[in-house]
């Protein structure tokens, strides 16, 4: 995901010179970033009035942003109850990662017989960028680590040579629980993720579709485990704070 300006730092006075399209993008990216950064947590109710003031746009772009974010899974549009940030269950997480396993292992398999040597060299550079960063605490160089990781996976999709598959996967990886995968890793898991990248590269160099698919499957399942663990921990913390036994 792009890193748009945080809601808290956006102007609070509407700017009439913004075009309709730009206003929609501003509203869309501003709300999305606030959710991703957990400024708006799961279950948080959003109102047009509050966001209009915060983002400096009219209600129409806010409504369009709500519609798009609802379609992508970031928001729930509830009849007679308004709009709230989506809450994700373990079942939701399982379903999303099950689809990712199928799509991304297939992508790796296709890429193994189609990727060019110069693209393999790019994958190596992206992985080399991640390697020292994976040894740092999670909050250090997170944007750089995420950028290199995203570049690696996007290049694999391009190498697979299926534009429609690329569009489908883009929708899947924009889902909130998937976007937070990288933030869920321990240092050890980050290093294992880098090792997976190196082994995927080795499989691509060998032109071995089965090997590439198998490692990608392990890679995505490891991410699923990290996200599920974080989700369970967060849920338990919430219950404890509320004096409820989960």
What does this structure look like?
The chain is mainly alpha-helical. The protein has two domains: 7-85, Winged helix-like DNA-binding domain superfamily/Winged helix DNA-binding domain (Arc Repressor Mutant, subunit A), CATH 1.10.10; 90-240, Four Helix Bundle (Hemerythrin (Met), subunit A), CATH 1.20.120. Helix content is 69%, strand content 4%. It has helices spanning 20-36, 48-55, 59-72, 90-112, 117-133, 142-160, 163-173, 176-179, 181-184, 187-206, 209-241, and strands at residues 45-46, 75-78, 82-85. Strands 1-3-2 form a three-stranded antiparallel beta sheet. Strand 2 and strand 3 (82-85) form a beta hairpin. The longest helix is centred in the last third of the chain and has 33 residues, at 209-241. The two termini are 33 Å apart. Residues 1-18 and 237-246 have low confidence and may be disordered.
Short note summarizing the structure:
The chain has 246 residues and is mainly α. It is built from eleven helices and three strands; from the N terminus they run αβααββαααααααα.
Q: Can you say what the CATH homologous superfamily of the largest domain is?
A: GntR ligand-binding domain-like
Pick out the low-confidence regions. Answer: 1-18, 237-246
Assign the structural class, choosing from mainly alpha, mainly beta, alpha/beta, alpha+beta, or little secondary structure: mainly alpha
CATH topology of the largest domain: Four Helix Bundle (Hemerythrin (Met), subunit A)
């Amino acid at each position: 995901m792009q890193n748009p300006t945080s809601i808290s730092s956006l102007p609070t006075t509407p700017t009439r010179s913004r075009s309709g399209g730009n206003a929609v993008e501003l509203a869309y990216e501003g709300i999305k970033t606030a959710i991703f950064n957990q400024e708006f947590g799961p279950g948080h109710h959003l109102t047009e009035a509050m966001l209009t003031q915060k983002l400096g746009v009219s209600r129409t772009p806010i409504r369009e942003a709500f519609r798009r974010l609802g379609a992508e899974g970031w928001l729930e549009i509830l009849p007679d109850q308004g709009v709230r940030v989506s809450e994700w269950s373990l079942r939701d997480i399982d379903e999303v990662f099950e689809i990712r396993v199928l799509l991304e292992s297939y992508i790796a398999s296709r890429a193994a017989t189609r990727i060019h040597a110069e693209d393999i060299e790019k994958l190596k550079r992206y992985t080399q960028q991640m390697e020292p960063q994976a040894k740092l605490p999670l909050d250090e160089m997170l944007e750089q680590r995420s950028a290199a990781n995203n570049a690696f996976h996007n290049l694999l999709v391009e190498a697979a040579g299926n534009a429609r598959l690329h569009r489908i996967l883009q929708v899947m990886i924009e889902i909130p629980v998937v976007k937070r995968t990288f933030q869920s890793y321990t240092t050890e898991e980050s290093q294992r993720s880098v090792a997976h990248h190196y082994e995927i590269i080795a499989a691509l160099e060998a032109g071995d579709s089965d090997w590439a698919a198998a490692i990608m499957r392990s890679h995505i399942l490891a991410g699923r485990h990290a996200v599920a663990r974080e989700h369970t921990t967060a849920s338990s913390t919430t219950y404890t704070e509320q004096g409820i036994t989960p």
